[in-house]
Amino acid sequence: MFFVNVEGAVYKEDKWLIIERSLKEQHAGGLLSLVGGTVENEGNSVKILERTLRRELFEEVGVTVKEKLDYVSNTSFKLHNDEEVIDIVFLCEFEEGEPFVKSPDEVNAVYWMSTDEIIKHPKAPVWLIDSIKEADALLKKRVSPY
Q: Tens of pLDDT along the chain (146 residues)?
């Protein structure tokens, strides 16, 4: 059985919304990350991934994103306790709110960073770098089809 996690590659102008995960987090504590969280069982549901992501963005950093969310990528990984996770990343355009550490048990800091800043940051794990590169490519394709 897998846990399903969703993350938002939230952009505003030429920057991405990035958090530093709390050291209290067992998985990737202290590293940079996209905002996201685990999908909860709701029984029969529609757009559960999108709704979960919107909830997590508001609960963790106090922001909302525009209605259109575009699929970026998915990966799977094992946690330290051997639980398996499927992670799904969506491209999201920032709508409103001033991002802040709303959930200190999950978030240490909030940043707006360029793709290059993320790639070069020592606390950026490879999976974040890969997700940002893919989201950036999708965003550029969206702006210019060539």
A: 889 999 999 999 999 999 999 877 767 778 999 999 999 888 788 899 999 999 999 999 999 999 999 999 999 988 888 889 999 999 999 999 999 999 899 899 999 999 999 999 999 999 999 999 999 999 998 766 65
Query: Scanning the structure block, which residue is given the tokens 């969506």?
Result: 90
Residue 94 in contact with residue 10, Cβ under 8 Å?
yes
For the domain 2-143, what is the CATH superfamily, name and number? Answer: Nucleoside Triphosphate Pyrophosphohydrolase (3.90.79.10)
> Hey, which bits of the chain come out as E strands?
2-12, 15-21, 32-33, 35-38, 64-78, 84-96, 107-113
CA distances to 13, 53, 58, 63 from 35, in Å = 18, 8, 10, 10
